[in-house]
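Suppose a colleague, Dr. K., hands you the sequence of a protein chain of 145 amino acids and asks what its three-dimensional shape might be. Before reaching for any lab equipment, you can write down a predicted structure in token form. Begin with the sequence itself:
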Amino acid sequence: MTSVILGVILLTLAINTEDSKVDDDYSEKGKQIVLDVARNQYAVALKLTGTLNLNNHNKVILHLHTSAKIKPATITLKILHPTRKKLDHILTLKPVSLKSENRHYTAALPKLRDGKWYIHAETRRWRIGAVTKLPSAAVSLRPTK
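The predicted structure, expressed as tokens, is then:
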């Protein structure tokens, strides 16, 4: 009788539990890691950092800090939950102003759960990021290692 009850419990858990985040395409994942390292190194060379403001009337604002003359047309912001892929958000940040000295980017901010998050701001050439615990008003982004 105990084994039947235990079997029913395990079957219920198997049906109701999310699949793990195991990646099937290891070669593609390896190529992505090499690309990420190159983008991180480029961000270091640019001395690029950023401040991400999250509590601004359902908007996210990214302030880029660098002495280099860069002003991307858009920036991809990835807000990634450490264990639940369904909670991940990928946003496209657009410039607040077209003035060359202004490096502020914004997008609508979806509702985020409190807790640990991985945040990456990136273009095809560079990437900066942080690990943060929400709620947090501001997050400092740096080239990741």
